Each structure stands twice: as C-alpha cells, then as structure tokens.
Amino acid sequence: MDHLHLSPAVADHLLTLLHRTSVPASPSLAAGSRTAAALDRAGLAWSGTHQRAESALLDHARDVRAFCERVVEVDRGFL
Amino acid sequence: MLLDAPSLRHVAHLLTTQASWLGEQHSWLSRSFDGLLDTGFSGPAAAAAVTRLHRLATPLARPPEQMLRVAQVLSVTAALQEDLDAAASRAALLAGRHPAAAGALALLMRDLRGLGDVLDAACARQIDALCTGVPTADATRLSDAPEEDLAAIDQRNRLSSGLDLPADVQLLEVADGRLVASVGDLGSAGAVTTIVPGTGASEPGRLPVHLDRARTIASATGGAAVVWLGYQAPPGVGHALAQEPARAAGAELQAFQSELARRFPRQRRIVFGYSYGGLVAGQAASRGGGLHADELVFVGSPGVGVEKASELILLGDNPQVSAMTNPSDPVKLVGGVHGPDPTSPAFGARVLPGDREGTHSSYWDDPVLLGTLRGWAQKKPSALSE
Questions:
Q1: What range defines the domain where residue A73 resides?
Q2: Fewer Cβ neighbours under 10 Å: the N or C end of chain B?
Q3: What's the complex ipTM?
C-alpha cells in the first residue's frame, strides 16, 4: 500500500514556499520611441507571466499544506 | 534621433542584472521544492506534489531568458545608433565648414533621421517578437505605419525592396508587385497630384518613365506628384478589357488618398487617371465612402466604370471632375468598353480641349493640361477666396 510520511519539518518547509517572490522590474526608456513602447509591452508581459505562475504555485503549495494538515488530523484521530 | 545610445546601453545593463537576479530566484525555488523531500516528505503523493511544483514554476524562467535576449537587441541597437550619431556629427561639422554643401548635407541629415526611425522600428519589432504576442507583419501600405514619417518609410522600403531609386524619389509603398513613389517634397507641398497609370504600367523597366512624368507634373504644379502603382496594371490591351483589376485597385487608391488626407489635411489633392488608370480612379470614386480629391481628371480614358460624373463621390474643397482625350487618341476606338467616354457631354464632366495632333502618349507635355493642373494645384481654398 502507498504511504505518505510527514514530519513537523515538512509543515515548516511548506510555509517557506508560501512566501511571495520578486516580480520582474522592467526598466524603461524615455517615452516617444517605438522601442520604449515595446519595452513597456515586454515589461507587462514579464510581470503577467510571473504573476500567473506565482499564483498557480502558491495555490498548489496551499493545497499541499492543507492536505498535509488533514492527513495529520486524521492520523491523530486514530490514536 | 528617437533613440539614445547611452540610455539603450543602460537599460540593457539593468535587464541583464534583473535577469540574473530572477534566474537566482528561480534556482532557489527549485532547490526549495527538492528540499521538501529532504524534510522527510516522502511517498508517491509527495513526489507528485514536488513534480507539480517544478512544472508550475517553469514559466518563471521565461522572463529572465527574454530579458537577456532583449538586452542583446538593445546593445546591438545602441551600437548602430552610435554609428548614426557619429555620421550626423560629421555631417554637422561639414555643414559648418562648407556652407555651399548645405543642401546636400540637409538631405543626408534627413536620411540619417530616417534610418534612425527605421532602427527604432526594427528594434521594437524584435522586442515584440521575442516577448509579446504583438503581430509583426510588415507594413506594406502607407496607412500601415500611421505614425512613421515619410523619410523613415522611404528608408525602410528601400532597404526591404533593394530598389536603387534617385534621391528625389520617396518610396511610399512597395510589396507584392505594388509600388507607390513620390517626387517633390510630399510632406510640405501645397498640392499633390496622384498619377494612376494604366495598361502596361507595371512592366519592369517602366518606372523611370513614370517618375519622369511625375517630375514634369510636380514641376508644372509647384507641388508633389505621386506615381501610384498600387495595383498590377493590365499588361496589354486584351487584359485591359476586364474591370476586376480596377475594382480591387479602386479600393487601394481610395485608402491611399484617405491616408494622404489624414497626414496632410491642408494639401490640395488632384487625382490624374490616365488610360486604364482612369477606370481605377473611377472605381475608387464610385465606391462607398468616396475618394479624397479636390480635382479628378480622366486623361485618354476608355471609360471610367460609371455612366455619369454625378455618380462619382469626391471628398474635397468644391471638387470637380474633368476629362481630356485627344481627338486622334486611338483610345477613342475602344470607347464604351468601360462606360461612356468621359469627354462626352452626357457624362457631365468639365472637358479640357485635346490636342488635334496629340496621341495617347503625348499628354505628359501638353501645355494646356499642365497649365490646368498648375491652376488646380495653386487654387486657394474656397473659404479663403470668397
């Protein structure tokens, strides 16, 4: 039968994964050129990509943490 | 110049630094995911959770990768911009030492500014292609680049087409067998005459002839003249019996004139439809929306696709339709092919007298026609003349 081993360190480590990461800070050029506008568009794309990925990561880390907490609770119920 | 080389280099440096930091952050996250297993978190469910964390973090690697590429693009652009700046400095120095060469140097400076604009556009397209979903289709029509000035458009078109044109020509559109070029300073001219040539005009090797004709008209009017070959002109008389090429071309001409009106709203606009080109102009003016022209003249026309001048919609200052055909022009033999002769009274156009000895190709130095064009080009707006 499959098993899942949980220690107190797992909960602590999962907590560290819930910290937010730094969003890419895009430098900009003085407005007025096509390059400056393209750089602004790139900056928006980078922050969007980062925020979507980070949001999915945090959701998953929260799910794993909640799952682990439930497993620990159920395990205690058998004691 | 639109771009500033030191700023480009500075931004490239900031992007490289930022990419390095984001890369380290991504590595730290990956190590943290694996570290979860080191805490004793084990079993198939734990392994699946960690695998999923790695997968979800994969997109975080994209921004730093793209930043490094954009930094490279900016560095290359900065180097090219420095070359342009150096050339502009040399030109300014020469202008100070040789006042007699001021005209040529002013042209050089204009071209350098145009190249700077092309460089800016190319750099922006590279960044968009690398980082965003913004389409990077080539601008092939004047209206595709509404913010780009004519010098930049000319430079871009020359570079993309490889055409070696004289310095007095600006290449406004070139793609897919279409070509639109102007002579005279289109940006500052009080009037522009758009010449729409007809049968055989798209043949390779004919362009110098069209440009010479445009120069004659620009000189006569004191304005600019455009050779509008925004369509594949029928190669021979047999092909010129079909109206379909003219219908499609009419939409293109309409769009071109509309863009001229948007860019230069105070300019007087004359459309000169020659031979089959008259049918194109007629189609443009009889489409919904009308044709931006103060004067529309049909010269040596085999018919213009409508029965009467009143069916043509011109958008201009007290616009008028005129027509001219030399009595011995053989085009009269095919009259009626594309509608009534526009010089016939029933058509209702103002008729200019043709040269009794003129032929189908003698209009370009006809003093009556050139004098009339001059009068139209220099006509004051009706609001001022009243």
A1: 29-79
A2: C
A3: 0.85
